[in-house]
Amino acid sequence: GLSQYSSDPRTEWDLSAYSTREQVLEAIRNLRYKGGNTFTGLALTHVLEQNLKPDAGARLEAEKLVILLTDGKSQDDANLAAQTLKNLGIEIFAIGVKNADEAELKQVASEPLELTVYNVLDFPLLSSLVGKLTRVLCTRIKEKSNKETADFPVNTGPQLSPTDLKISAVTSKSMNLTWSPPLRPPKKYRVVYYPSKGGTPREVVLDGAVSSLRLSNLTSHTEYLVSVLPVYDTVVGDGLRGVTSTLPLSPPRSLRVSELSHNSIRLSWKAAQGATHYLVLCSAAPDGAED
């Protein structure tokens, strides 16, 4: 599977899209480069929520590896998102090109860093990594596959996935989330939310017995993407996703002018709900405007 990212991650193809080496190579030849910003944290969250899912071809019994290829320093918190993946047993390899921040690569990558962090001066030099990286990846998969793992059913369905996400009581600063838990209660839930037009993802971790949350300190008049992910000991179940916009801030209404004198006027208005202060601006009307 492959995703590209800038300020908005984009899945190019899922794990289940192609079944032969030739098909994958043809897809790479047809790939168009996506320029833009470097929101690596948002990209890693996208991979977890969109690409490492059963309906995207991720098999629950298979080892999960993420190879991050970046040519710059992240403009959001890549470490937090990477730590979430690593806590779920997903191994991250970090490859930097040109202006990549090596310290950040080492924060994001899994241990041992001598096997998972690579840095080259330019894109053509990536070809020199292919042989070593292939051997390391295959060896890591074999090592992890040989460890005893819990026996999870391959078909998640209602067994591991919550349903019926409802978003209610939306204000300019907050919203309520509720959902129906899966048949098998998770160890915990990860609730990730961020503005749809780009922004740093925020995350809340809840106990698996909880099935509601109030999000607060949101930005007014903004569309938010919300994801609720059930987390088990060795797997993340299929999550719920929703999109909702917060309300605009209430404006003051019914502005009236009274008590005019040669150097003063009195203003009155109906209060704006929730306002703590008002800023009043005045200036002389331009020539020709109504007095």
TrEMBL record:
SUPFAM superfamilies: Fibronectin type III, vWA-like. It comes from Neopipo cinnamomea. Residues 1-133 form the VWFA domain. Residues 161-250 form the Fibronectin type-III domain. The gene is Col20a1. It is found in: Secreted, Extracellular space, Extracellular matrix. This is COKA1 protein. Keywords: Extracellular matrix, Secreted. Pfam families: fn3 (PF00041), VWA (PF00092). SMART domains: FN3, VWA. Its main location: secreted.
